[in-house]
Amino acid sequence: MAVPPNSQQEMRQRNLSRVLYAVAAAGPVSRASIAARIGLTRASVSTLVEELLRAGFLVELGPGRSGGVGRPGNALALTGMGPCGIGAEIGVDHLTVCAVDLGGRVRVREGDERPNGEAGADSVLRRLNSLLDRVVTDAGAAGLRPAGLAVAVPGLVSRSSTNVVRAPNLGWHDTDLAAHLAPAGPPLPLRVENEANFAALAELWLSGESTARRDFIHVSAEVGIGAGVVLDGELLRGTRGFAGELGHVPVQPDGPRCACGGSGCLEQYAGEAALLRAAGIAVRGAGGRTAALARLRARAEDGDEASLRALRRAGKALGIALTGAVNLLDPRAVLLGGALAGLAPWLLPPLERELRQRTAAPDAVPEVAVSAVGSDGPSLGAAHSVVRSVLDDPLPYAVAR
Amino acid sequence: MAVPPNSQQEMRQRNLSRVLYAVAAAGPVSRASIAARIGLTRASVSTLVEELLRAGFLVELGPGRSGGVGRPGNALALTGMGPCGIGAEIGVDHLTVCAVDLGGRVRVREGDERPNGEAGADSVLRRLNSLLDRVVTDAGAAGLRPAGLAVAVPGLVSRSSTNVVRAPNLGWHDTDLAAHLAPAGPPLPLRVENEANFAALAELWLSGESTARRDFIHVSAEVGIGAGVVLDGELLRGTRGFAGELGHVPVQPDGPRCACGGSGCLEQYAGEAALLRAAGIAVRGAGGRTAALARLRARAEDGDEASLRALRRAGKALGIALTGAVNLLDPRAVLLGGALAGLAPWLLPPLERELRQRTAAPDAVPEVAVSAVGSDGPSLGAAHSVVRSVLDDPLPYAVAR
Question: GO molecular function terms here (chains A, B) (predicted)?
Answer without folding.
Answer: DNA-binding transcription factor activity
